[in-house]
Design brief:
The protein has a domain of 123 residues: Tetratricopeptide repeat domain (Serine Threonine Protein Phosphatase 5, Tetratricopeptide repeat, Alpha Horseshoe), CATH 1.25.40. The chain is built from 20 helices and four strands. Helix 10 runs antiparallel to helix 11. The two termini are 31 Å apart.
Length: 446
């Protein structure tokens, strides 16, 4: 599968009812009758584990693998997210208990409790279910091991076609399990399920089939589970097999940054840029990387490319101003920030950054004045610095008006009020700062 499927689309694909592959253990009864049948078959299968006449034959392990898949499918054959209430009532009549409630958004919930399963309904359709009595814990990994044993014993390849069909069926089950675990959420469980699809596809019998979407979702689930190494491994596998979406390379960059491998992080972005040179997400990440690395010239090069695709993006114009400031051209920076204000009079970053430029200029002027030994000249220098410092004030006040809880703005204003002897405002800002929660992390280009 080389075309991107969103997780929602994948859900529809995996959960859409279709023709169920016929296996030795397949039945067509109700969940309750199937439970009894599978229980009996499982007992015989368990006995076969110690029976050398059975456990040395390929057919035994094939039958056990198919039984495990049917056990997994016991209720899933009849239930999936979105199944209507009328269908549930027909297949699962007479629950022994019901619980109903409504959330703050007006959604109606109903929990149908049976001896072996609890079904959760949301607004009249199935949201999820939990098997409270299970025949076999984790049947899918067992099915995979059984198919592998089948292959090993099928030395004449007499069952090759059937084994491949069962591997295909097992992949579908792992896909569904991966989705279910992701939305529980159990991200580690989701990773194990999605990665199992990749393990199956790597088998020679599958003839080199690669599902790049499932490789990406395995990486994504591992990322959510904070399994960084596994996440990088599967993202790289998806990249190697030409997963066709730029978000992969941004995800890779983030994972490499987590382990402090900045060279690989940059390499991931550059690979993404080579494949998707006009993609705004990749360009933003490259710009941010170089901005945070204080490599202004490289950042400017990518910024120009981004602006060619999106010339009215205020974040890009503001970032250009920041780069000019870093490159020692404050006048050009002020011009870019003013352009942002002209385009949007409520754009916080532009007001704040203009205030910072004047504040920093004044700070340097005060510092330079410290070396002046003639009192008259010193006074002139300090007065000139005061004038520049005063230019910062209206921009910082406007920034504070736009975002009244932004800490850096408030701290700067407190200093400005103190320096300019605006005592009432100084005390007011000091009180506001003391009432703020812990300092938030600054953002990047959006």
């Amino acid at each position: 599968m080389n075309k991107l499927l969103s997780l929602a689309a994948l859900i529809l694909l995996v959960l859409t009812p279709g023709i169920k592959a016929q296996t030795e253990a397949t039945t067509t009864g109700t969940p309750e009758s199937n439970f009894s049948i599978y229980k009996s078959k499982l007992k015989k299968s368990e006995e076969g584990l110690t029976d050398e006449k059975k456990n040395t034959t390929a057919k035994y392990w094939l039958s056990r693998a198919e039984l495990m898949m049917d056990i997994f499918d016991l209720n899933r054959e009849f239930l999936q997210p979105g199944t209507q209430q009328i269908h549930v009532n027909l297949i699962y009549p007479n629950p022994k208990d019901k619980k109903t409630w409504q959330d703050t958004e007006g959604n109606q919930y109903e929990e149908l409790i049976y001896d072996k399963i609890t079904i959760k309904m949301k607004n009249g359709v199935v949201e999820n279910f939990t098997e409270t009595v299970v025949l076999y814990e984790n049947p899918l990994p067992e099915a995979l091991q059984c198919l592998e044993k089948t292959q090993a014993l099928d030395t004449t390849n007499k069952l090759g076609k059937k084994i491949k069909e069962d591997y295909d069926q097992l992949k579908n089950h792992f896909q569904r399990l991966g989705i279910e675990e992701y939305y529980k959420p159990d991200y580690a469980g989701s990773f194990r399920a999605f990665s199992s699809v990749g393990i199956i596809n790597e088998k020679p019998i599958m003839e080199g089939v690669v599902d790049t979407t499932l490789l990406f979702y395995a990486g994504m689930a591992a990322s959510r589970a904070e399994m960084t190494d596994e996440s990088i491994e599967y993202f790289e596998k998806a990249a190697k097999n030409n997963y066709p979406e730029p978000e992969l390379y941004v995800s890779l960059k983030m994972k490499y940054m987590e382990i402090g491998d900045t060279a690989s992080a940059l390499n991931a972005l550059e690979r993404g840029f080579k494949l998707f040179p006009s993609n705004q997400m990749v360009l933003r990440e490259l710009i941010n990387y170089y901005l945070l690395s204080n490599r202004a010239q490289e950042a400017m090069e990518y910024l120009k490319l981004a602006q060619a695709e999106d010339p009215t993006n205020l974040s890009y114009i503001s970032a250009e101003g920041s780069l000019y400031d870093k490159m020692g051209d404050p006048e050009k920076a002020l011009e870019k920030y003013q352009k942002c204000i002209d385009m949007d009079s409520t754009f916080f970053d532009a007001y704040y950054n203009i205030g910072v430029i004047f504040y920093n200029q004044a700070y340097q002027m005060y510092k330079d004045a410290e070396s002046i030994r003639i009192a008259k000249d010193y006074g002139v220098a300090v007065d000139a610095a005061d004038i520049v410092l005063a230019k910062s004030l209206p921009y910082m006040e406007k920034a504070h008006q736009i975002d009244p809880t932004e800490r850096s703005t408030m701290e700067t204003l407190k200093t400005l009020y103190y320096r300019m002897q605006m005592n009432d405002k100084y005390e007011e800002m000091k009180a506001k700062l003391e009432a703020l929660p812990a300092k938030a992390v600054e953002g990047e280009i959006k």
